[in-house]
Amino acid sequence: MDESGLRARVFAEEALLGILLPFWQVVIGAVVLVVLVLSVGRLARRGKSRMTTALLVTAVAIAGFAVIGVLLEG
Question: Strand, helix or coil at 59?
């Protein structure tokens, strides 16, 4: 196969991934949302003090992921 045929195949693979990527992001987001709702319900049933601790841990985790994302972006 010549170079142009190989390049065309690579472009086709990138296009296919470009089409499928948003779908998988939606699926993963939906699963995360379901797990989040279930875990928040369970925490709410356990009481106020556990809920406060969970919110603080979650806030620290979000801030940490944001900082890591900004550092790895550049």
Answer: helix
Give the predicted TM-score (pTM) of the model.
Answer: 0.48
Contact of 51 with 41, CB cutoff 8 Å: no
Say if residues 17 and 28 touch (Cβ distance below 8 Å). no
- How far apart CA 4 and CA 56 sit, in angstroms, is 55
Q: How far apart are CA 30 and CA 23, in angstroms?
A: 11
H runs (alpha helix) in 1-74: 3-46, 48-73
Q: What is the dihedral of CA 23, 25, 27, 28, to 10 degrees?
A: 160
Q: Please identify every stretch of the chain with a pLDDT value under 70, giving residue numbers as ranges.
A: 1-13, 74
Structure tokens at 54: 């969970």
What is the chain's Cα-based Rg?
21
